[in-house]
Design a protein that fits this description.
By secondary structure, the protein is an alpha/beta fold. It contains 2 helices and 8 strands, in the order βαββββαβββ. The chain has one domain: 2,3-Dihydroxybiphenyl 1,2-Dioxygenase, domain 1 (Roll), CATH 3.10.180.10. The longest helix is centred in the N-terminal third of the chain and has 11 residues. It is globular. InterPro entries: Glyas_Bleomycin-R_OHBP_Dase, Glyas_Fos-R_dOase_dom, GlyoxalaseI/FosfomycinResist, VOC_core. This is VOC family protein.
Length: 140
């Protein structure tokens, strides 16, 4: 018997090569807000609804412990799924295009915490894959 139950993801930490560029992406494109800044560590905590994404500069005190920066052949995270609502595929694609983000793949239906629902995938400036996950599709 475990002495705890998991309720949700608290935070995800991403090592990034250009902290200001990544901050612009996560704030302007995804709407995250800064919760706390620790530039002495090369760390910025971003609020993402009930959870957080922490950005760590690979050249900073914390980030250097992780070794070389990520690249196409060496990623440290497969993807982050951010639950969004409403899920208006055309509006989301238009918003991303305005920020120079190409979404080559069609929206697909995938399983998530709430069940099967729409998913749209793209990459952040460091090549980390972001999934925008819509609400589960309920059977009629």
């Amino acid at each position: 018997m475990r002495p705890f139950d998991i309720h949700r993801i608290d935070h995800v930490v991403l090592r990034v090569t250009d902290l200001p560029r990544s901050l612009r992406f996560y704030r302007e494109v995804l709407g995250c807000t800064i919760a706390r800044e620790r530039y002495d560590l090369g760390l910025v905590h971003l609020r993402t609804g009930a959870s957080m994404i922490d950005l760590v500069d690979v050249a900073g005190r914390l980030g250097a412990r992780g070794g070389d920066a990520t690249r196409d052949t060496a990623r440290n995270v497969d993807h982050i799924a951010l639950r969004v609502e409403p899920f208006d595929d055309a509006a989301i694609r238009q918003h991303l295009a305005m920020h120079g983000i190409d979404v080559a793949e069609p929206t697909s239906t995938n399983f998530g915490a709430e069940g099967d629902g729409p998913s749209l995938y793209f990459r952040d400036p460091d090549g980390n894959t972001i999934e925008l996950k819509g609400p589960a599709v309920r059977d009629a």
